[in-house]
Amino acid sequence: MAKNKKKMKLKHHNPNKCLLFGLLLACGSIFSQSIEKLYINMPDILNPTLSRQNRLELIEYHKAHQSDSSVNRFGNKAYLVLSDSLNQHLIVKNTSSSTFEMKLNYLADSTMYIGIIRTTCAPLCMSTLEFYDTAWNVIPLYFSMPKAIEWLDTAKLNTSEIDNNWLNKLVEMCFISALFDKQNNIISVENNTLDFLSPDDRKLLKPLFLEKHLTYKLKDKYWVRE
Fold first, then answer.
1. Contact 138, 131 (CB under 8 A)
2. pTM of the predicted model, to two decimals?
3. 120: burial class by Cβ within 10 Å (0-12, 13-18, 19+)?
4. Residue 36: closest CA among 15, 7, 57, 50
5. R_g (Cα) of the chain, nearest Å
6. Average of per-residue pLDDT across 19-38
7. Residues 12, 168: Cα–Cα separation, whole Å
8. Please, which pLDDT band fits residue 30 given cuts at 50, 70 and 90?
9. CB 115 within 8 A of CB 107
10. Interior angle at CA 93, CA 87 and CA 96, nearest 5
């Protein structure tokens, strides 16, 4: 009888140990998909300015507190601007006029995804956005870049003598840059178009445009303006 009781005890599992084991597995999965590892091992075609070796050097030098730069494929310096392992956020200045930003975040169903923002300043800054799963397959998260006219203060425009058609044509060329929020699943967007205008036109129109960032939050598979 004692032997049977002993066998029965062996069959019982410890729920606390199972919970701990599950947490360790989850943590291991998260760390295996860290922003640094994904950045280093990403397909070269997604970041052709820096080779895998360049990317490895940037991360490893930063961890060792030795340097924040590496030499890109063109012989110029590339700089690690931000490496935030807590918020899974990374920003690299690939060249003197281009920035590569990468952030890990989650969809509503807890699926991890990678967001990439490429910004080129020549000299005015413009951004493009791309979204991938952790196997580097493109995923459809729809972001529509706003037009410069969306910063317009219509109340002020209505009391001005400026011709609407002339204004629309003048700001038709948009220079819009974007950034990921450091902590939240949000994209912040800035209008740089006024800097494209002549000094006289900029002086005339600047009071009509709101000096603020537009923010977009992911809802389902669409980025919606807040």
1. yes
2. 0.82
3. middle
4. 57
5. 24
6. 57
7. 73
8. very low
9. no
10. 160
Say which amino acid occupies 123.
P
Amino acid 118: pLDDT: 97
CB-based contact 138:132 (threshold 8 Å): yes
Token pair in block for residue 144 = 């529509």
What per-residue confidence (pLDDT) applies to 32? 57
Angle at Cα 53 formed by Cα 101 and Cα 177, nearest 5°?
15
pLDDT score at 33: 77
Q: Report the distance separating Cα 38 and Cα 31, nearest Å.
A: 10
Distance CA 196, CA 206 (A): 12
Q: What is the dihedral of CA 169, 209, 200, 146, to 10 degrees?
A: -40
Tokens of 164: 């609407």
Stated length of the chain:
226
Instruction: Report residue 126 as tokens.
Output: 């413009």
**Amino acid at position 154, single letter:** T
> Phi, psi at residue 125, to the nearest 5°?
-90, 135
- Taking 50 as the threshold, does the pLDDT of residue 72 lie above it? yes
What residue type is 33 in one-letter code? Q
Residue 187 in contact with residue 110, Cβ under 8 Å?
no
Phi, psi values for residue 36, rounded to 5°: -65, -45
Q: Is 75 left (phi over 0), alpha (psi -120 to 50) or beta?
A: left
Decide: helix, strand or coil at residue 114: strand
